[in-house]
């Protein structure tokens, strides 16, 4: 309970009743912001959804017509998703295939659950 003195709240008693949980450290906050901002673009988000739904990975040439954007835009989107740790890339000859990480799959499942689209 806070105590008022002369119309003001006593700060010492306010701390006792209104403790604030410790904030995540700066590195954790930066990683979370990077991950969430990577999904803050329609092309990147849709690309991640397509990649996550693929069994064996997806090539840029497969994503381009599905997303309706240039090859450069697809490559840039995948690069940003990769930097955020949401997709991995493997090279086969001259082609690069992208797959969703476990973190991306879990994040998308959480979004589905929040929206009520989960399989439960």
TrEMBL record:
Pfam family, one: HTH_5
PROSITE patterns (alphabetical): HTH_ARSR_2
Superkingdom in the source lineage: Archaea
Presence of keyword DNA-binding: yes
Keyword list, A-Z: DNA-binding, Transcription, Transcription regulation
SUPFAM superfamilies linked: Winged helix' DNA-binding domain
A GO MF label: DNA binding
HTH arsR-type domain span: 24-120
Coiled-coil blocks: none
NCBIfam families: HTH_metalloreg (NF033788)
PANTHER family with a match to the protein in the record: ARSENICAL RESISTANCE OPERON REPRESSOR ARSR-RELATED (PTHR43132:SF2)
Name by which UniProt lists this protein: ArsR/SmtB family transcription factor
Lineage: Archaea, Methanobacteriati, Methanobacteriota, Stenosarchaea group, Halobacteria
